[in-house]
Amino acid sequence: MKGPSTLNTVNLKSRLAALTLPFLLTAIVASAQTTPAAPATPAKTQAVEPWKKIPIPPLHAFKPVQPRRIELANGLVIFLQEDHELPFISGSILIRGGSRDQPADKVGLVSLYGEAWRTSGTATIDGDRLDDQMEAKAASIETEGGTASTSVRWSSLKNDFDTVFAATTDLLLHPAFKADKLDLAKHEMEAGIARRNDDASSIATRVAIQLAYGKDNPYAREAEYATVDAVTLKDLQAWHDRTVVPNNIIVAVSGDFDGPTMEKKLRAAFEPLPRGEAFQSEKITFTDPKQSVNFVDKSDVDQSNVFIVGLGTERSNPDYYALSVMNEVFSGGFGSRVVQDVRTKLGLAYSVGGSFSASYDHPGIFYVQAATKSVSTVPATQALLAEINRLKTNPPTPTELRSAKDQVLNSFIFHYDSPDKTLQEQVTLAFYGYPADTLEKYHDGIEKVTSDDVARVANKYIDVSKLAIVVVGNQSEITPKLDTLGKVTDVDIAIPPPPHGKPAE
Amino acid sequence: MALAMTLSFAARAQDLASFEKRTTVKVLPNGLTLIVCERPEAPVFSFYTLVDAGSADDPQGASGLAHMFEHMAFKGSTEIGTTNYPAEKIALAKVEVAYAAYDAEYRKRVGQDKTKLEQLHKVFEDAQAAAQKYVIPNQFSEIAEQNGAVGVNASTGEDSTQYFWSMPSNRLELWAYLESQRISQPVEREFYKERNVVQEERRMRVDSSPVGRMVEQFLATAYVAHPYRRPNVGWESEISQVTATEASAFHAKYYVPGNIVIAVVGDVKSAETMPILERYFAKIPSGPRPEPMTTVEPPQVAEKSVIIREATQPFYIEGYHRPDYRDPDDSVYDAITDIFSNGRTARLYRSLVRDQIIAAEAQGFSGFPGDKYPGLFAVYAVPLPGHTPDEMRTAIHKEIDRLKNEDVSDAELERFKTRARADLLRGLGDNEGLAHQLAEYQTRFGDWRQLFRELDKINAVNKADIRRVANKIFTDSNRTSARIEFVAPQHPTGGAK
Q: Which of A143, A364, A427, B112 meets the CB 3.0–4.6 Å disulfide criterion with A357?
C-alpha cells in the first residue's frame, strides 16, 4: 500500500538517480496498499460513530530539547544535540554550494565530487584503507553532492568518536582526489545515463521537471555523457577550495556525548580555519510552462504515467499556510479529493498524488500525477484536470477544512518527536536563513487558515494555462487518442551519444 | 572478542535485561498475542500488526488474494465506512450474487452468450451502485489521519501481511478500536473498484518495469512446486477474476487471533495499556489456526535459466535454494551476505565494481522472495555500458568459488559480527522499527527475546561454516539465473509516432 506522496524536487531527482536493485526488488516483493481518502460527506449519517465516544486524554506535556547553537569567530556554525538513549555519536558537515551552482557544460560535477571525495581519501590515508578502518568499527564517513550543498556525514559508536572524527576532519581539510576514483564515479554515472529510459515513471518524472522548470534550468538539467566526460580532477579540487571555508559551513552533532567536552573538541578542530569568501549562488530565473500536451512513446508498457506540472512556490511566501491546507484538501491523505476521486471512486490508478510544493529558496513544483492503464489515459488525465479546476470553483467544505487542518495539527508532534529531527529542522532553517521558530509559526499559521483563504490562493496560484501535461505510455494502446486533450508534442528523450563514440572505458 | 565487549550496550543498558523490564507480552484467551514495549522518549507510539499469512498462502487460482485483502482492510468495518450497515450488508450480498452470475457466463468455454453477458454485467453494475449508496469512502483511514496518524500503511509479503502507523500517544485507545474493527469485522465494500486499483499496481510494479518482468520470470522458473513461484501481486488473469466472497473466506481462515501478533512501542505504560488493548482485542472470536502448508519445494535437479531479449539495458541475477530461517546455519547465510555485499569493503563491490570495472552495482542477499519457507540466496549485478550479463556471471562465479575454496579473512568475519551488533543497537532507538522487530521475532520464534539472542548465533559463525555452507548450496544444479540481453529496438524510442 502506498500513501499519497508529497514530493519536492529533491525527492524527484533522487528518484531519478535511483538505480539500486534492492529498491526495485523491494517494490516487487512487498507490494503494499495505501489509499488516501476523500472527505466524507454522506447524505445522511445514520451510523452511531462509536469512535467519537472514545476519550482522548490530553497529550503528555512535551517540550523538545532544542540543539545548542554556537557560532565561531570564523563564521562556522555548530549545533549540538545530546541524546543519550544509544551509545552512538553522529554528525554532519553541510557546505554551501551544490549541483545548481555547477557550470552547464559540466553537469554531474557535484555528484562526481561527492562520490570521489570519499572514495579517494586523504593525503595520509587512501579511500580504500579508510573503508577498511571504518567498516571494522561499524562506523561510517560519507560525502555527498546535493542540490544546494555538499556534505560530509559520519557516525560511530561513541567510544570510537575521537578516531572517526579525526578521520572526518582529515577528509574535510586534506582530500586527495584520485584519477581512478573519479573514473569509477564517472562509470557509475554513465550507467545511470544509459539506463535512464528503461523505466517509464522515471522518464515521466524527469520530463515533468524539465517542463516545469525549463530544460536548461539548473534544477532540471541532466548529466549527459559529454558533461560527465568534461569533469576533471582539477575541477573537483577547485570546487573544494571554493566551497570548503568555515563561513560556508554548518556542523551538527548528535548523540551520546557531554556538551561542553564536545564543544571543546569541535572548537579545536574548526577554530583555526581562516575565513574565506562566502559562497554566492547565481540568480536563477523561472518561467511558467506553457499549456501543452507532451508525449513519450514507450512500447513495452501497458500503463501510462501522467503528470500535470507547473511552478510551485517558496516557503517564505505568506500564502504558504493556506497553500499547505489546500494541498491537504487536494491530495494530502486518504481523504483528499484526488485520491478519493481518481483512485477510490474511479479505480483508475494505484499511484496517484500531487502537491503545490514549496522549496526554501526557489519555487517548488506544482504537480499532479497518476499511473493508469493505457486505455484510461485520457479519462484519468481529464479527471485530474477536473480536480485541479474544482480547487478554484469549490472551496473546501467545513468538513474538508476541519479534516485537512486536523491532519496537519494532530500529527504535528511528528515534526519533533526525536532529538535528531529537532536538530535537522534547525540545521535546515539555519542553512536557508529562516528563523528558528519557523515550525511554531507554521502551526499557528495553519490554525488560522479559513476556507476563504484556500479559495483565494487556489484562484491566485492555479492557472491551467500555465500547466503542462506529460504522458509516458504505449501509443498503440492509448484510446481515445491523446489529441483529445489538445495538440500533442512528441518529446525527444534520445540519449545524446558519448563524445568519443562510447563511454570512457 | 575484546571488540565485542566494547560494543556491549554501554550507554543506557540497551540490553535484553533492560528490555525485559519494559516489555510485556500477553497471549489473550482467543490466541492473539499482544506486546507492549515502553519507550517514553516522546508522547507518541507506533504499532505493528503482523498476520502470519502472506501471498504464499494465496489459494490455487487466486494468486494475489492476500494482497487484495490487505487493500480491503482499509475499507472499514461494520461500524466504520457505512451509513447503514444492515442495509449495506444485503446490498453487498446482491453484488456477490450478480457477480457470480456474470462470472459463470464469462468463464463459459463453449456457448458464451454475448448479449446475456452484457445484461449480467449491467445487473452487476447496478448492484454495485446500489451498495455504493451506503459507503462513506475511506472513512477508516480518514479517522486515523485526522487523529494525527502518520505513515498509515501496510504491506503484503510472501510470508506475512503487516499493518502499521504512528500516532500521538493520547490516541492509543482510538487506535485499538480501529485496529480491532478491521481485524474482526472487515466489510468487503467497493471490492471490484479496488480490484481495478490492484491491477494498476501490477501494471506499475511488474508489467511496465523491465526488472519487474524479469524477477517475475526468475521466481516462476526457480520454483516448480512451492507458492514462492507466484508473483505476490498475483497473475493478471487471477487478480482480475477474484471475488469479495473469496476475500472474506481468506480473512475467515487466516485472520484468526491465533495467527496475529500486535506490538505497540512508545510512550505507553503496560499496566495501563494492556487492559485497554484487552478490552478491544479479547472479544474477537477465536478460530482454528490455519493448517501448516504441505508443499515443500523439491530439490532442483538441473540449472535453469531465463533470457529476456528486449530493448532495455542488460541485467543479471542468479539464485540458489537455501533452507528456511529456522535452519541452524541461518546466521552463516547472513555472514555470506555481509561479506559479499555490505559497503565498499564487500567482495562483490571490490571485485566487479572497483577492480574489474564491469558493473555499476553488485550484491548478494538471502531469503528471496521470503524466508519462512526455503528461499533463495540471490546475487545480481548491473553491467556498466559495454559489458554483458555473461561477464557478470563469470565474475560472480569467481567470487563464489573463492568462498568455497578459501577461508574468509579474520577481518571479514570480525567485521560481520561487529556490524551485526551495532545494527541491532541502532534499531532500538526507533518506535516503528522496534515494533516491527518485536512482532516479527515473536511470530517467528514464539519469543521476542530471540531478537537479542540472534547475536549468540552470529558470534558462533566460523570460517569453516562459511566454506561448508558455500559448498553446500552454490552448486550448478541448484542455480537459476535470469538476464536481460539488450536488443536494439525496431524503431528508436523518443516520441516516435
A: A364
